[in-house]
## 1
Amino acid sequence: MALPGGSGAGIPDFESWYRQEGTRLVNVLTLALAEPDVAKDAADEAFARAYERWSRVSAMESPVGWTYKVALNYGRRRLLRRRVEQTLLLRQARDRSATAASVLGPDGDLWSIIASLPLRQRTAIVLRYLGDFSEREVAQLMGISDGAASSSLSAARRRLAELLNRGADDLGMDRRTIHG
């Protein structure tokens, strides 16, 4: 299965490739993972792994696709670990009769709405529309089937429309203002 991101042929050297792809990967990961520090770490880890294996990675059909996949996997593992840690901390706080709320409150901008999506939906939406990957490429980058990617994108679009419509209702706006 070929990953998106073009052919590895013609990539001059790691440093040039890193300068060309580094910022884009960090930006896409920041939105997909909704955690800038995790996104930066994931991008750094993916590029470090690519550098260690540069002779193989540069010869791949898609060095960019390989790097995105490594970064997404690393980032998701970090977020899962963080979630487990937070769950344990919340349990400890409850045991001490303390309350802990770490839910992001809506501030009305589109990013906060996107950030409220489940990780899989958020990742799919960001890769598709910010990363400009096709649905098939999104599936490959996320390591899921084409149908699962399509389903995640569809669910995310439905949820975004629902949230945007609810926001318009709360503000007393006409929905036609939002939808053109």
## 2
Amino acid sequence: MSNKKAGISRAIQKERRRLLIDATMSAISEHGLSKLTLAKIAGVAGLSAGSVNFHFSSKETLLLETLTYLAEEFEQRIDQALETAEPHPAQQLTALFEASLDPDITEPRKMAVWYAFASEARARDDYQRICGAQDKKIFDITLQLCDELIRLGGKQDYMNARAMANSVQGLIDEIWQEILYAGDDYDREDARFISLSFLASVFPWAFPTPPSPFEHRSRLAVKDKTLRIVRAEKEHLPAVSRLFDLYRQFYEEPADPRLARKFIGDNIRKQRSVIFLALDEDGEALGFVQLYPDWCSVAAAPFWTLYDLYVDQTTRQRGVGRALMDQAEKMARKTRACRIDLETAGDNHKAQALYEDLGYERETAFYKYSLELD
């Protein structure tokens, strides 16, 4: 085998292993450790049980590899945050909190894996073996930072650094448990506010009182007229094309405002799609959804493909995406469509949670194939 082919083969195997680890997280989140089987993991991954055994010798090996992956990811995120933060202990402790709240690190499936291993008796030894040294390292860092902060305030005669470090880590543990139970609805901005408020209350000489996050993050709704959903017309082209360009960048395409304006302009002018635009009370565009009409031969009826949904980063978790999805459903029902189809990335768990909450069901009976045409 040539070096090139060997490299491609290794890359494929690496990607398959990553896919299986991701599927294991989903399966643990859904079934727990005690009811987990290779068949369930393979089903989530869309692979056969034999494929799983090809990459991992046993279920236990795959489970331990998954926990190791999460432990290394978390430790790397902590190290990176501390390395890039200012050396002052206040900035270092803030960076530790921020890293511990990172959405990529604390997404609900990963929380489920952590707590599954930590809570089930037969898995505790495995957890300690893989994560024990890491837990001690992070606690020692927290202890050192608390000690430095206490000395900066001249409070070492009546403040105990170990007690403070336990409080900090206890707060992080409590936040992680809340994320586990709340899932994608968890408000990390509120958690950040609570964390910084705690630090300001125990180390007031080093941390300012944080501003409340609630004044500018109230939920928006069509019912109370804080949000309007309109069908995009020619006059909305600048706003929609701006959001569409950001949407493409989210999927790692380079910024291209000219392409975005032409594509959206053609869609509106030629009525190739239906686009709904979310506007706030001041008429500022917050997000959009775009659907394309199609026909189902089996049902002998029309259906819609919901291809694009995007909400500006500054307005997420305020009800905009749900309002756009509701409007799309109303339009589909009005046109007597038999269904709405959509796709989303396998790791876009927030979007998946929204779709499933709205009644969308994940397709498992069919494979999707694509042929790239240059």
## 3
Amino acid sequence: MSGTARCDPLRFTPCKFHHAGDVARDLRSAQSSNRRRLDETTLTRQTIPIPGTTGIPAPAMSAMVEIARRVWSSAWTLLVFASLFWAGNIVIGRAVACRVPPITLAYWRWTGAVIVAIGFAWPFLKRDWPVLCRHWGILLLLSATGVASFNTMTYIGLQYTTALNALILQSATPMIILLWAFVLFGERPSLRQMLGMMLSLIGVAITVSHGSLATLAHLSVGAGDAWILIGIGIYALYPPLLRGRPVVHPLSLLVAVMGIGSLMMLPFYLWEIATGPTIRGGVASYAAMAYTAVLPSFIASLFLNRAVELIGAGRAGQSSHLIPVLGMILAVLFLGESFRLYHAVGTAAAAAGIFLASLQAGTAQQVLPHEKSARAVKYQ
């Protein structure tokens, strides 16, 4: 062909064909234009226009981009923020206990999370939809254990117990997971893991009894602690069940599990509305609900996925120890809760148990990134 095509890629206008001589002139014109743009760079270096704004100074924008790049490349920075968001969820749940009904909070948390995540997950969800439909049974189990039951029971428990208690009780979750893995699949824990399990359970017992042997002797456990313990026991089924998950994109699995869990809670949410409880507290209560839907439900999952990519699932999983520590600081600062001796002893026992179990090198089962993304609901 003696001519060549020239079209406007931005306006998508039909292509027109011109003689090759026009192309040479176009090239010379482009080179001249490039030189002019280079000369003009010194004039525009101070301000880089941002669509929809009046412009941000170039040094400030460069600094923001650099900070974002460093954060996204730092696994432990991402894990600290994710742990902070999950710990904040418990503190928020306690703070709005008298203002937002627990099932309402759980329902809108996951419904809101689906609304936030669906735009990111949609291309993968469309592709993976047939696979997800074929595995509807395991998705129902994952949604019931990891989303609907656990979080609803946690918020109910926070109506009656402190955030400090809830955080310490949840710190023993890894040990209960080991127990379910043995019951369901015959995975025998090592001696170190069994000793760790005992230490963690001792920590839980100290916490729920407030350090009182008399309370333990009479098996007296507060209603709030009981709700949270039952929720943890149900949730602990979730990670072992993940071995039957469909092989799909992490976001597809996450949105599917959250969406089904939200639908499971819908009848209970409607029942709660019918019985009378309503949202009180105005803007602050709705802001708290928005927090639970965005930060601990979706953003923390993204951060955890990225951290797993950078340092692996095993090392990233160790960040779970940060959650009770950060949560206790938040509860003392923002809720005015008192940190007592039995909290310290219970935390130390649970942490020692988890540490002892994690010393068994080389035997931990490999966890895939999308498995960790689904596990993100564990601390919420």
